[in-house]
Amino acid sequence: MIIEFTVVKGYQVASGLAEDPRFPQGTISAQIPFFKKLGLDLNDFYPATLNAKFNCNLIVLNQHDLYFKNIKWHSEIPSEDFKFYQCQILQESSSYSALIYQPQITTKTEHFQPDNQIELIAPYIEGIEYGDQLQLKIESEIMSLI
Q: If you count Cβ atoms within 10 Å of the first and of the last residue's Cβ in the chain, which end, N or C, has fewer?
């Protein structure tokens, strides 16, 4: 399944651009070593998230590829659960392997996403700007738009 999305600005804590003193290099950089110990190596990905907004009211993610529970990745943040889903980002004639990054709402304490938006982790993609229209390629049983 290929679905169009719009790149939108997020909270910028994942990248560290929010200048939150708790996460000077961003939350993704802080989480990378914890995920690596569990078997997910994110070193080929840019240490930030790409915020993808879909033309729907609600995104339902069904089957996850990875599920990490009770990850205590920061001394000031309670343990969190994370799900990851394999996908691809399509930009013109290029395709990039990516992951949907989903901190679980039941353990997350701040920086909540709208119901029609997801966060993607991908390699650095040159030239992407807020407002750009890209495509997400994902197995149809994994994601539903309502």
A: C
Q: Give the rounded percent of residues in the chain with a pLDDT score beyond 90.
A: 81
**Gap between the Cα atoms of 80 and 58, Å rounded:** 22
Contacts of 18 (CB under 8 A, 6+ apart): 11, 12
Helix %, strand %, coil % of the chain (to 5): 10, 40, 55
Q: What is the CATH number of domain 2-145?
A: 2.40.30.30
Please, what's the b/e burial string for 131-146 (b: 16 or more CB within 10 A of its CB; e: otherwise)?
eeebbbebeeebbeee
List of residues 6+ apart from 44 with CB closer than 8 A:
123
